[in-house]
Amino acid sequence: MSDVLIEQLQTLLPPVSYDPEGKVLVAQLTAEGTVLGDALESLEAIESAIFPSTAGDYIADWERTYNLTPAVGASQEERVQAVEAAMADLGGQSVPYFIRLAALFGVPATIESFREPVVGQLNAGDPIYSGDWPFTWRMNAPLSAFKAVAMESRITDRRPGNTDVVFGYGKEVVDGITDKVDQLFNAIHYVVPAAVIGIEDL
């Protein structure tokens, strides 16, 4: 590209007054052509930085604009995803807002809140929370999403000021195990004894 630029610079010289092939002039035009070529390449990179997905090294400027600090060792893709999530984040304080915010990071999530025990509103077996638990909520995400640092950081920053948020991964695995244990318990304590009694009655 620099050769093309040098030729173009040579055509801009006034006719007769300069020798386009002169040693000193060619050296000067070569230096200017190299600098101009570098500037044009930088211009292309800056033009690409208009979108986070093609920003390359300029992703740091996007992060500065949205006051984001990438996690240590974050990949380019994760940094771009965090910027795009910040761009799409219009604000809010509701449960659907935080679920949508997690989805911007590609994480399907549910939210679980905790309440103080109140007589007449508790059922047998309900957990009893006290202390700061009524001001804490948990975002549950699939085990496959562990550990979504960028999502956690953004949601922690956006949470209501009077609350704390904790993150749980793999609740679906625990629920699946619990269901299997319940089935096993039911089989051992109800199905098998009933079958044995039925055999004895024959």
TrEMBL record:
InterPro entries associated with the record: Phage_Mu_Gp48
Protein name: DUF2313 domain-containing protein
Organism: Pseudomonas helleri
